[in-house]
Amino acid sequence: MKTIVIPGGNSGIGRQAARTLLADGHRLVILGRDPRKGEAALASFGAAAGRASFIAADLSTHDGVRDAARRILDKHENVDALVHTTGVLTMTESRTADGLHPFFAINYLSRYHLTQLLLPTLRRAERPLVLMMTAAVAPSEEADFARFPEFPTFNFNRDRKPVQLGNHHYAAHLTRTEPGLAAGVINAGAVKTDILRAAPWYMRAGAKVLGPIMFDSLETAAHNVVGAARSDTWQSALYWGKPGRFEQRVSITLDTATTQALMDTSRALTGA
Strands 81-84, 27-32: parallel, antiparallel or unpaired by DSSP? Predict the structure, then answer.
């Protein structure tokens, strides 16, 4: 039995992955902002809910991430895997309490920060695992990191790639610096989940009309997450770009100088 922490496991793809991993017999710690969703998720797990717990956490802020890590470590001496499924889709200009855009703070920096804080206990696992879900951005794609991390006057079309590619760079960093730890990035695909609630009206309208044709099922979207958590044979750092196709993955090979610069910036922001 593994202890698996799933930020975002109270809804959408994270909850689907949680349900399957519970069926495999693992113990889960689910993080989410909304306690009501957390309680509903636990109730949906039926008899397996006894092996799951929920922690209400605001991962958009440094203090929220630190509090979540403290509460996890207070209750669990060992953590085997960290599966980041939390995400936000926002295209407007706004800032967190730390002065960062929430798209950056949640979709990249919280993953780096929480993982860094849990590394001491992850290192005790037989095969520690860190997975990060993103939109469809392959590690081979190029991005301009000049605006990272402030992203002044956030522009979604321009700034989404460097944010999401930060996950690839962090996976590469973990692979290089943490012997024995497996790290991967997984394309979430196109799924109708609560992440669309903050999308522009035209995106929500399009999803409603075209969803049955274009969207993946939750089972398909969670397939590679579950496969990576179950398998001990893959070597990191890997990217799964095709939902539902676990055997279709590519190595994450990136410029090490860029990776180090992003990690230095992330450490300066979080202190972790």
Answer: unpaired
For the chain, what's the residue count? 272
The 10s digit of each residue's pLDDT in 45-84 is 999 999 999 999 999 999 999 999 999 999 999 999 999 9
- Cβ-proximal residues to 266 (8 Å cutoff; 6+ apart), any chain: 109, 112, 113, 149, 166, 170, 272
The SS3 call for residue 28 is strand
- Provide the CA 249 distance to its chain's centre, in angstroms: 18
Question: Which whole number is the average pLDDT over 15-29?
Answer: 96
Helix 12-23 vs helix 218-230: angle between axes, to the nearest 10 degrees?
50
Report pTM: 0.91
The C-alpha angle 67, 29, 176, rounded to 5 degrees, equals: 80
Question: Percentage of the chain surpassing pLDDT 90?
Answer: 85
Structural domains in the chain plus CATH codes: 3-270 (3.40.50.720)
- What is the C-alpha separation between 260 and 75, in angstroms, rounded? 33
Exposure string for 98-122, b = 16+ CB within 10 A, e = fewer: eebbbbbbbbbbbbbbbbbbbbebb
| Per-position DSSP letters for 89-139, written without gaps between them | ---S----TTS--HHHIIIIIHHHHHHHHHHHHHTTSSS-EEEEEESS--T
